[in-house]
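ok trying again, last paste got cut off:
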Amino acid sequence: MILEAETDDGVTLRAHETGPSSAPAVLLLHSLGCDHGMWDEQIEALVSGFRVVAPDARGHGRSGAPGGDYTLDRLGRDVLAILDAAEIDLAHVCGLSMGGLVAQWLAIHAPARTGRLVLANTASRIGSEALWEQRLFAVQAGGMAAIADALLGRFFRPGFDPDVVSRFRDRLMATDAIGYAGCCAALRDADLTGRVGAVANPTLVITGQADMATPPAQGQALADAIPGARLASLPAAHLSSVEQPDMFTVALLEHLTGTEPQ
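nice, full thing came through this time. structure:
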């Protein structure tokens, strides 16, 4: 089913919701330039035992895409609005890239709403101010076509399934350029490096061995900064949940159920 939430600044957000309403809730937060569909493989595996909520972030998919710069705080409060609309008090959270940064924000700012964390292909600071300024200006000048090929080269390793790559290119091209630019501004300004040590949630950090956007060393640094965090490394580029869905899903389920190898 489609869940809708209205934010305090008048934006309509939409999320895909499935699974038993009485089951533990899991939030799946997607990467920049994607939508909830990037989690299709994981949703299929989770739905028998969890209530799964996979939002389209502001500026993406079926959610609203207002103009102007977004902030990490705004993206985090958007997720809280979705939880409120779903009447979910507590959710485990799995986020990849931008979604992983939002998951960190939730654990810091709304710990009572946040259960176990899976932080995939992400960091406490993603990229640099110059990188995001360049990306933002490129999209404003030339739309999504100006950056699509370069992004796909970071999403996946060379030679990965061309049908999947084509599908994600279509998703990139369908992303609202105004919303994408707004999220670029949020990532330009977001830096949780000095704050992730406050995360008290059981945390799994997943890295991609060929990830150029958030290299493995950044994932290791994130795991080192969060007390008790575990690290898993997958043979993948940036979208490890898509490139290695089986391995990713096993690690995700083990962590959510507390059955990971000791």
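cool. The chain has one domain: 2-257. The first strand starts at residue 2 and ends at 6.
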